[in-house]
Amino acid sequence: MAKFELKLPKMGESVAEATITSWLKDVGDTIEADEAVLEIATDKVDSEIPSEVDGVLVEKLFNVDDVVQVGQTIAVIEIEGGETVEVKAAAAEPAAESETTRVVAEVTQTVIAAKATVKPVISSEDRFYSPLVKNIAKAEGISQTELDLISGTGKDGRVTKNDIKSYLESRGSAPVTAPKTEPVIVVQQKVESDLAPVKTVKKPSVAPVILSGDDEIIEMTRMGKIISKHMVDSVQTSAHVQSFIEADVTNIWNWRNKHKGNFKKREGENLTFTPIFMEAVAKAIRDFPMINISIQGDKIVKKKHINIGMAAALGDGNLIVPVIKNADQLNLIGMAKKVNDLASRARDNKLKPDDIQGGTYTVTNVGTFGSIMGTPIINQPQVAILALGAIRKVPAVIETPDGDFIGIRYKMFLSHSYDHRVVNGALGGQFVKAVKDYLEAWDSDREI
Q: Percent of the chain scored above 70 by pLDDT?
């Protein structure tokens, strides 16, 4: 019998270690290839580590809560064969340099080209792939984007060995192509030539925090660190601009009060304002599809599906954004059930990875906390986000055929943040105006 060393695979370019959260197999258990052995947590995502071979688990080298470095052996599996098999952590392999890179290298002798690499197959949405699947994808020339499109039958939609083999068998008849990525050239030393010098952008210094003896230092949670980095990256990526508009939602307020009791009895679901707002947003996106885009280099990716993320508060104060897929295809009952389901599972920490992926536009309800408006940060790689303010009962001028008079109305502010690189003020303003118009045109006699 031979022994197979299961190592911690590389989980991403910036991930050097992971914490073991649980062992799914005990010593003596039989393990099949691509079956999960343990669960780990990094500062980016929680994942399972599967075996690449069939065998029996004979040794665990780490305990729960231990921190393991990428490349370290974490378990030993006994397999059929004559010698120990050692599997290295997935590593990047250099691809051929471009002609431009070779010329620069010959002229300067001091330019080091960061060659285009075949990266470990981990999607931009943090979808996990086992080392076995990554190796098959690399050997068959399957790009990252192409791999992300393969439906998985494993736990939480994970792509298994059989999934990728089935895809390869049908690949010839239905190929999926992905855009090519140009190699990145990184100059690490000064170039003594006629080439323009490469300027180093100096990171702004942060003023030190002065502590007193009574101050309390609280460690940020792992999710808090992720959110912090995501927000900073978004501000550094997008040129944020905001438009604000006030909507009269009196008809919606009265209509909901009229129907929420019967809806609860009939459907067993609460009828909140959120599905009504989501319906209006989905209609406005359909009217202005250039809000439903992403930027890829100097190209615009126009999204086919309208997948609206709804920011939900967690018990620890952090936020998570579950996604309503194909929101424009849901009726109001379907929208209400979907909103309630995602919100409930978010509070109970039962969302699946697929529930928070694929969003194309985001809505956040700052009115939940009493705010009348806000300037939300765009959820990358999207280009816009809408904040819903609190609904307020206010005096307002009401226009009638008999003249204007003052009355009490229910109103709210809509705050629209958008990426000014691709969304100009006209489009950003017209979109939020369309949302307002759909809300104010609500049919008070609508049945549900």
A: 79
Q: What is the CATH number of domain 93-170?
A: 4.10.320.10
Query: 22: number of CA atoms within 13 Å, CB side?
Result: 5
| Mean pLDDT of all residues belonging to the chain | 82
pTM of the model: 0.59
Question: What is the domain class of 223-440 according to CATH?
Answer: alpha beta
The angle subtended at Cα 171 by Cα 146 and Cα 137, nearest 5°, is 50
CATH 3.30.559.10 maps onto the chain at: 223-440
pLDDT for the residue 380: 93
Indicate where the chain has its CATH 4.10.320.10 domain(s). 93-170
Using DSSP, state whether 305 is helix, strand or coil.
coil
Q: Which positions ≥6 away from 318 have C-beta within 8 Å?
A: 221, 223, 224, 227
Write the class of the CATH domain 2-86: mainly beta
Torsion of CA 214, 218, 219, 221, to 10 degrees: -170
User: In 159-249, where does DSSP find H-type helix?
Assistant: 161-170, 222-237
Residues 79 and 64 sit within 8 Å (Cβ to Cβ): no
Q: Is 379 exposed, middle or buried (CB count within 10 Å of its CB: 0-12, 13-18, 19+)?
A: buried
pLDDT, tens only, 50-104: 998 999 999 999 998 888 998 899 999 998 866 555 544 444 333 344 444 444 3
Give dist(CA 374, CA 343) in Å, integer: 21
For residue 381, cis peptide bond before it (omega within 30 degrees of 0): yes
**Per-residue tokens: 371:** 């705010």
Q: Are 382 and 294 in contact (CB under 8 A)?
A: yes
| Chain region(s) in the chain for CATH 2.40.50.100 | 2-86
Torsion, Cα of 17, 22, 26, 29 (10° steps) = -80
